[in-house]
Amino acid sequence: MTPPHERTPLLAPRRSCFPQLYRVYLVSFVVGMTFSFTQTALIYSFRTMTCDEYYKTHEWDGLGDRCAIHAIESATARSVALMSSITTGCTLLNLFTSAWFISRFGVKAAMFQQTFWAALRNLTQIYAQTLGGRAGMLIITTTQLFNTLGSAGGFQLCANAFVAGLSPDAERTANFGVLGGVFMFGSGIGYTAGGVSERVWGYLAPFQGAFCLLVLSTLFGIFFLPHFTPEAKTEERRSFLAPLRVFVPRRRATGGRDWNLTLLGLGTFFSVLATGYVPMMLQLVATNVFGFTPDTSGYMLSLNLLVRGFFLTQCFPHMITAGRRWLSPTPTTTAKAPVDSPSPSSSSSSSSPSKTPSPGMLSSPTLPTPPSPASPTKLSRTSHSPGSKSRRPSLPNLPAPPIPNIPRRRSRSRRNSASPSASASPAASSFLAPAPEHPFDADGAELPDAAGAPVLDLAPPPSPGAPLFDLLFLRYSILLDGLLTGAVTLASAPWHMYAAAGVLPFASGTGPASKGVTLEFVPSHERAHALSAIALVEKLAQVTTIGVFGYAFSALSDAGLPTLVFAANGAVAWCGFALLLPVRLPRAAPGGGV
């Protein structure tokens, strides 16, 4: 979570019936639905405007759909490709502007400038629809420049920064998955809702609905989401390309360079490179090989997005929690030993009332008055056992010896006074601080309680299984993703496409897992830049996979083997798995190695 600063309230806020994290989820769901609301309508609008422009200089004397000719289809494809290229380039720039905006003005302001500019873009596109023809297409293409200041990629970056600030460290990775799943749910519903609204209420309905939803999202975020004070104001001035430094190898204090973040970034890149084009390839193979129509392809895509959203919101958090619990040591030794069975040294000191305090103890200026005789001395079990041969009489009302009036400190050094026989696991014992050199120093003293045992620390140590399992999950999720994607090569019937669309999302946890692992390597004040760097790597991989596997699919289709493109995707995913094998967690993190 966000570290405390001078503006942090001293009293914790009261528990809300609608937690702040759920508010971020709600806004992400609505915005995810909004950005996909106009996708199908926009493509159809380009086709209609191209058709209108074409028949300004041509005559139609045939039957059927007058727009279903090769000249119009190729012109539409060129216009859509130009718009997509501008959108992709501006979205890449938006990742930099969003990270800069977060560091200067805070994540809340950065998030809702995304929806503000997106609403202006939709409003301009409504005007372009009323013009139609070449002018309308030119205006819509030009409006994609608004993506530099507000896009879906920038909004997801800001939402991830919100989740990183609102989530405890142990829940951060799972919450990244929930956020991605919520966004997928919204996107899946938006594709269907946008198409239905266009068919029922007309071609302007999707754009008008998206504009209203974006305005409502902006107002909701302004009034109901928390504000985080930007930390970069108190640090050194950062350059515009600062997020790219995250994956640069760093020099170690012991010599050499640390390549863990570099390998992690490459593994994430290859993972997205392998899977980023899979939904599009499912549609292409289903259409070209198995004769899917646009409505059946839309059902398949919605199935893929909804199952992916279900996995990330319902299955992924439980898998992360169960895996961390499995790898964490049992929390029984360091907590029970000091209370239930005092160590031999503490029991002997408390059971010997005749033992004289040390000189340093008597000369301490903070000695209190002797305790009331009403508090009996806690004698050891051996001196009061029925079979004990000790001749010393039992003195139940003897006052306890005076002890220094040293304030109780909830420090982890108290765990060192536990019994040596406590069977603490090696992983858990590595978090124990060394014993103080001066036991009666006010800064490091151990004050025993009435039973002679040290007072336990209220906060448990961090679980060493948390980042360790996240890294293991990231590795083997990519491996499973490559295996399942490669298996789609064997598809030979239309229902195999639906099966692939429903099964492949169950290996889609690599994105949130990579974010959770990457944040283990950076301090809290660099999390926004780290998330920006991950988003940039993912976006570059998405752009690359369109070119690489688009060309590969074309070449394999000419050879009569279009389904082999899935085998190529699986091979690339396994390369990402191999790149992640040498990654080791930082020593400062719990479980500092794999």
UniProtKB/TrEMBL annotation:
Residues 342-366, 416-435 have a biased composition (Low complexity). Residues 396-405 have a biased composition (Pro residues). Residues 326-448 are annotated as: Disordered. The chain crosses the membrane at residues 21-46, 80-102, 176-194, 200-225, 259-278. Its main location: membrane. Keywords: Membrane, Transmembrane, Transmembrane helix. It is found in: Membrane. It comes from the Eukaryota. InterPro entries: MFS (IPR011701), MFS_trans_sf (IPR036259). One of its GO terms (cellular component) is membrane. GO terms for molecular function: transmembrane transporter activity. It is a multi-pass membrane protein. This is MFS general substrate transporter. It comes from Cutaneotrichosporon oleaginosum.
